[in-house]
Design a protein that fits this description.
The complex is a heterodimer of chains A (about 650) and B (about 625). Chain A is an alpha/beta fold. Chain A has 22 helices and 14 strands. Helices cover about 50% and strands about 15% of the residues of chain A. In chain A, the strands form three sheets. In chain A, strands 6-2-3-5-4-7-10-8-9 form a nine-stranded mixed sheet, with helices on both faces. In chain A, strands 1-12-11 form a three-stranded antiparallel sheet. Chain A is elongated. About 0% of the residues of chain A have low confidence. Chain B is α+β, with helices and mostly antiparallel strands and about 625 residues long. In chain B, about 20% of the residues lie in helices and about 30% in strands. The longest helix of chain B has 25 residues. The radius of gyration of chain B is 35 Å and the shape is globular. Chain B starts with a helix and ends in a 12-residue tail after the last strand. Chains A and B meet through helix 1, helix 4 and strand 13 of A and strand 16 and helix 12 of B. Chain A: This is Glycosyl phosphatidyl inositol protein transamidase complex subunit. Chain B: It comes from Vermiconidia calcicola.
Chain lengths: ~650, ~625
């Protein structure tokens, strides 16, 4: 009871009531700082293989010798097929696999996004594992066109050569599916979604045919990306792409196995996010983390492997980069060893981490160490929300609307005698007064704005490509105007208590959403938290209107000076606030990453992500961030429209 | 005592001599090359014993160890299967023996027995010991009682009549899809044979080769055969069927690694424009691969195992090859052989001498190559659909390739943790469901038994789908490899014999592959426990602090009264008054502040006071 009494006393403490804004600011700084110390040796760990069954690099690889001649022939064959029509290419790939004794099936797919069609045909072959009983399978993938759109000559040829080589082994305890998808994003997406459903009902935006050939539960998938032409090109390093849709990651064991096999067994250096020269310094580690942060927060596919993650199938892409001395046979042996390791698995990959942040190919931070960064930032909103809630429940000071100056003495509040059984206490009267919070209008405003978020989401995902930039410009303008409108016509007429409640509800929702999101997609939650951080400190701006009785007759000099002074505050704050609005940030992102493609390119990618890949970053932007910003803006500018004399 | 033994001795001897001809043993090997460089080998070992000898524990070829189990458990007919891999219908055609000697992946067992549950439990436990298989895990949750799927092969009714038993024999069926069939199961299997793998065709059965096969199944079938009104004999048929990859089997045991061939040995397609010294598009070598029994099986057949009834038997080996194919015999003695009209050759094994078949490399004419594969009665595939830990779906495709309507029985025995939603069971396509037998599951006690009689139209495909829910298991119920998933036994499909094409009353069988069902699995690791513990602590701490911060403390008098509270108070007062009256006043203390006291033996129900009889049941209720 002593504790509760002390806590009860504490909630009336004036110090505690003033603390929240500082606490919020501190949380944001700590969250940001937390991320910055992660690259240090003390806070990150060396990667290790957790699943004992994998035994990476423990087998001798035999891929070589005459297989090299076969590989060259297949590469020529692939080159020949690339110059023919799509139909002939699909038939040609099928016939090569059929000659090897694989069961071949084709799958066609199409999506309609932004008035365009994405379509193609996947060719897949099934190698029945001699020791397999059709319950488990692994996938060897080579997209016909890699993520950059180049034809994956050597990758496809290598997959075909490996399929022929694997066919002779009797050790496979899982079936091997060889998948030559048409492209690197939508082909695998169509294939893996059809793999996990009976039949996909065609809709207006999607038409995927079912898969005639299936094996058991997929245990892992490895994609090869090696676009060297028919005369080959040696490579320097293997870039391992691991990000899945919506920031899901493959089990760290699979990634570690690939790194271990490539670097220890084959002597190929590995890299992440195309960072070729990684000196393992603090700067490089932070660079890798931030690149990973951006890729993960966007949540879009980063290669053929990405589509597998939502289905709980661990997958990675091995992408050759640079100009070095490793040849296709080394990549083939790496893949062979990797498949032998996956084949060793007795259980689905589960031992190691699914949530991690990589800073080098052999260093990572696990969820326990990085999650607080996003959680603390999300917590800053909750703190502000609680503070605003408490504030909204406090009776308005009777002296007037002016905030109390420090030093000013307040009238001694009246005391009341309270009896509870034998206990008698003197309690300030004010503490017993409960101000009824009017909840309907605040809740309706917050809910309404959040629902309105679906309008931009719908528009951006259903408008034709050519109209997308105009839609977006309109949206940007509407986004800036909407809070002004709300502030002028709704919020400025509400009592301050309700404005406080509106902001509290909105921030509470943001805090809860971000902390939930941080466990699913850490990067998105973290970046969104940083971008939203000003919202914690938003308070109604000083008024820009004259008091009622004065404005009817003349403008006093005092008033004009006051308004000018207010304007000097309102102007920069408004500009700063608009700068962190979702559309403006998206324009900045466009400028940074979509130089040539422009707004249209970025918006089409976003629409494709939403419609075809199932990425929900768009929903988070328009359904969480945008409404919170609009509510924040309305609160901010509500003060400008308030008449100083209205506040009685 | 001794006299009686002396007296019975001649009678026993007489019966032995009489029964001699009914003790028999035969064995037979069926070889057939299949497309894709595969070889089918079907071994059959049959021994019989008269029922009288069986009843008096006298055995000659019939394995005693198995017979004693059958006697003890009152099993009339027994079928045991060990299977691995899958039969590739598209490349290999119809299944051998019409699928009658085949089992689902892992171990499968069904039997007609006299006894009830105890007999079955004894049977699975004894067989588990005999065959070194985990058959003892076939508990009530894995046992089903199929209605339509199985017919007894033996003459069970005759047997019952002869044994003057009245009760009906019961069929019980169990499957273990997770069981990995291995050498430890082959050794006891061979030990049941009279020659124990030392002579005869069983000498080819080597664990290394058998379990390197693409598909293999071992079966033990015991059935009574009674002539109407005559005697009964008990027949045991042990079969081993396998499909070997010839190329893979011929790799020497000391270097089984399929290293890339030297480039000189790879046949290149020289028609390709880019063909060169370092570029070679591989091409299949023309003609049939050369092979021999000893190279494929690792050893030749070590003489015959002609023990009994060999006079009846004309040959030991049937070799089904096109008549053009050259077959050379390597043996020290001359081998009786003959060729049937279809081109199959038959051989009889020599006594005490090795026997080997040699097939040289040969390019056959196109007529011989296009050896017609017999079309299977039905194509079936079954898949799990959906992802995630909560729900899933089952999707079965049944294709009738024949130009006539077929009726099939589809049997599914599902473990209890897979809960099918029967309202989602749908049959689409050109077929109709005629009958359905369904036993719903009981958690942890009984699995689902679903048997459907389906009619499939000629040349058409039928889709059978249903959704299911995945149960959450208790943490002790997970196996050590919990994250592997849980095996779902194969569906058994019996194609009923059509009236115009009556092969036998059995029809033919096929089984789908078994499935792997991922269930929601807790993370059995330390971080998981830490997360749970810290979450609990945080929840407790947060809860109490939140409660203190948010709760409004008011005095009792300030609480506005409501109707129910008034009623309750009135009842309380009433109870107190009654209590006071009963005790004669002064004794009952009415405690309005702390709440009324309800007397022992009385309960307040819906605002009324009701007497509850029986002391102690109500207990003391302080409200």
């Amino acid at each position: 009871m002593a504790l509760s009494a002390r806590l009860l006393a504490l909630r009336r403490s004036p110090v505690l009531l003033k603390l929240p804004p500082y606490l919020s600011a501190l949380c944001i700084l700590v969250g940001l700082g937390w991320l910055l110390i992660l690259p240090l040796n003390e806070y990150s760990r060396q990667t290790y293989i957790s699943e004992n069954a994998i035994l990476p690099g423990q087998v001798h690889t035999y891929f070589g010798g005459s297989e090299h001649n076969v590989f060259r022939a297949y590469r020529q064959e692939v080159y020949g097929l690339s110059e023919r029509s799509d139909h002939e290419r699909i038939a040609g790939l099928g016939s090569v696999m059929r000659e090897q004794g694989l069961k071949v099936a084709n799958q066609s797919y199409s999506w309609h996004v932004a008035g365009e069609e994405i379509s193609g045909t996947n060719v897949s072959g099934l190698l029945k594992g001699p020791r397999a009983d059709a319950t488990e399978a692994m996938v060897l993938m080579a997209a016909w066109r890699n993520f950059e759109g180049e034809i994956n000559y050597s990758g496809v040829a290598l997959a075909l050569t490996l399929a022929r080589y694997f066919k002779r082994w009797s050790i496979w305890s899982k079936d091997i599916l060889v998948l030559i998808s048409e492209d690197s994003t939508y082909g695998p997406e169509a294939w893996v979604s059809a793999y996990h459903t009976t039949s996909i009902v065609p809709t207006a935006s999607r038409n995927i045919s079912s898969l005639p050939i299936k094996a058991g539960a997929l245990q892992g998938a490895v994609a090869l990306d090696y676009p060297a032409g028919p005369w080959g090109q040696r490579f320097d390093k293997l870039d391992i792409a691991y990000d899945g849709i919506n920031g899901a990651l493959p089990n760290l064991d699979l990634f570690n196995t690939a790194v271990q096999v490539a670097s220890s067994q084959m002597g190929i250096g590995c890299s992440l996010h195309n960072l070729k020269d990684h000196s393992d310094s603090y700067k490089d580690r932070l660079k890798t983390i931030s690149k990973g942060l951006i890729t993960q927060s966007v949540g879009h596919a980063t290669g053929p492997h990405s589509a597998f993650m939502p289905y709980h199938v661990d997958a990675i892409t091995l992408k050759t980069i640079g100009d070095g001395w490793h040849d296709e046979m080394t990549l083939g042996r790496t893949t062979e060893s990797l498949f032998r390791s996956i084949n060793n698995l007795l259980e689905h990959l589960h031992q190691s981490f699914f949530f991690y942040v990589l800073m080098n190919t052999n260093r990572f931070v696990s969820i326990g160490n990085y999650l607080p960064a996003a959680m603390i930032i999300a917590g800053s909103f909750s703190i502000s929300a609680l503070a605003l809630w408490v504030q909204s429940g406090k009776p308005t000071p009777s002296e007037g609307t002016k905030p109390m100056r420090p030093g000013e003495k307040r009238k001694q509040p009246g005391m009341t005698v309270v009896k509870d059984g034998k206990n008698v206490a003197l309690v300030p009267k004010e503490d017993l007064e409960v101000v009824e919070r009017k909840m309907f209008i605040p809740a309706a405003v917050v809910l309404g704005v959040h629902l309105a978020g679906f309008i931009p989401l719908y528009l951006l995902n259903h408008v034709d490509r050519s109209n997308l930039p105009y839609t977006f410009i309109t949206l940007t303008a509407a986004t800036v105007i909407l809070p002004q409108y709300l502030a002028r016509h709704f919020l400025s007429n509400l009592p301050p208590q309700q404005i406080c409640t509106i902001q509290s509800l909105s921030l509470l929702l943001l805090g809860a959403t971000l902390s939930t999101l941080s466990t699913l997609n850490f990067s998105l939650a973290f970046l969104l938290g940083l971008l939203c951080s000003p919202l914690s400190f938003v308070r109604p701006l000083p008024s820009l209107r004259f008091s009622l009785e004065q404005s009817t007759r003349y403008v006093s000099v005092d008033d004009a000076a006051g308004i000018a002074a207010n304007l000097a505050v309102v102007g920069p704050i408004s500009v700063m606030f608009v700068a962190v609005s979702p559309p403006v940030v998206l324009w900045v992102v466009k400028g940074m990453f979509f130089g040539s493609a422009g707004a249209e390119g970025m918006l089409v990618e976003m629409a494709r992500g939403w419609v075809a890949q199932g990425v929900w970053t768009g929903a988070v932007i328009w359904g969480v961030w945008w409404p919170v910003w609009v509510v924040g803006g309305s609160v901010l500018w509500s003060g400008c429209w308030r008449r100083p004399a209205d506040d009685e | 005592m001794r006299l009686s033994i002396l007296l019975t001795l001649p009678a026993t001897l007489l019966s032995l001599i009489y029964a001699q001809e009914q003790h028999s043993y035969t064995e037979h090997l069926h070889l057939k090359p299949l497309p894709d460089n595969s070889l089918y080998a079907g071994f059959t070992f049959t021994s019989t014993t008269p029922y009288t000898a069986y009843a008096s524990n006298h055995f000659r070829y019939f394995p005693r160890s198995l017979a004693q189990i059958l006697q003890y458990t009152h099993t009339a007919e027994l079928h045991l299967r060990f299977a691995l891999g899958r039969w590739d219908e598209e490349s290999w055609g119809s299944r051998p023996r019409r699928g009658l000697r085949e089992g689902g992946n892992g171990v499968e067992l069904w039997a007609w027995m006299d006894g009830a549950e105890e007999g079955w439990s004894d049977l699975v436990n004894s067989l588990s010991g005999l065959f070194c298989a985990s058959l003892n895990f076939v508990d009530s949750g894995k046992t089903t009682r199929p209605v339509l799927s199985f017919e007894p092969e033996g003459t069970l009714e005759e047997l019952q009549r002869k044994r003057s038993r009245t009760g009906e024999l019961r069929l019980l069926h169990g499957m273990l899809p997770h069981e990995v069939v291995c050498t430890e199961n082959l050794t006891p299997f061979l030990k049941l044979l009279p020659c124990k793998g030392k002579a005869g065709i069983s000498s080819l059965l080597d664990g290394h080769k058998l379990f390197d096969a693409n598909w293999q199944t071992m079966a033990v079938d015991v059935r009574p055969v009674c002539t109407p009104g005559g005697d009964c004999i008990l027949e045991i048929e042990q079969t081993v069927d396998m499909v070997l990859d010839i190329e893979r089997s011929m790799r020497p045991r000391e270097s089984p690694i399929p290293r890339p061939l030297p480039i000189e040995d790879v046949t290149c397609d020289e028609t390709k424009g880019y063909n060169g010294h370092d570029t070679c598009y591989p091409r299949r070598p023309k003609g049939e691969t050369a092979w021999s029994l000893s190279s494929v099986f690792g050893r030749p057949i070590r003489g015959s195992c002609a023990l009994g009834g060999s006079e009846k038997q004309e040959y030991d080996i049937t070799f089904e090859v096109p008549s053009e194919r050259t077959v050379e015999i390597t043996s020290e003695t001359t081998i009786p052989q003959s060729t049937t009209s279809s081109g199959s050759r038959t051989y009889r094994l020599p006594q005490n001498a090795d026997f080997d078949l040699n097939l040289p490399h040969q390019v056959l004419g196109s007529s011989a190559q296009a050896s017609t594969l017999e079309q299977p009665p039905l194509y079936a595939s079954r898949q799990l659909t959906g992802h995630g830990a909560e729900r899933g779906g089952m999707h079965t495709l049944l294709r009738n390739p024949h130009p006539y309507t077929q009726r099939i029985v589809y049997l599914e025995s599902l473990p209890w943790f897979l809960r099918p939603y029967m309202h989602t069971l749908a049959l689409s396509g050109a077929g109709k469901m005629e009958k359905m037998f369904y036993t719903p599951l009981l958690d942890r006690k009984r699995g689902t038994h679903l048997e459907l009689l389906i009619e499939i139209q000629p040349l058409s495909t039928v889709e059978l789908t249903y959704d299911f829910e995945k149960a959450i298991l208790r943490y002790t119920e997970y196996p050590p490899d919990a994250n592997r998933g849980f095996d779902i036994p194969a569906a058994i499909i019996r194609v009923l014999p059509s009236s115009n094409n009556s092969q036998s009353k059995q029809g033919s069988y096929l089984r789908t592959t078994s499935l792997l069902l991922p269930l929601p699995t807790p993370d059995f690791s330390m971080p998981y426990n830490v997360i749970i513990l810290t979450s609990t602590v945080i929840a407790l701490g947060f809860g109490s602090i939140f409660n203190l911060l948010v709760r409004r403390f008011v005095l009792v008098e300030e609480v506005p009264g409501n109707a129910i509270a008034g009623v309750v108070r009135r009842v309380r007062d009433g109870v107190a008054r009654i209590r006071g009256m009963v005790k004669g006043g002064g004794v009952g203390r009415v405690d309005n502040g702390g709440g009324g006291v309800v007397k022992k033996g009385e309960e307040v129900v819906g605002g009324e006071v009701r007497k509850v009889d029986g002391g102690g049941r109500g207990g003391k209720k302080d409200r």
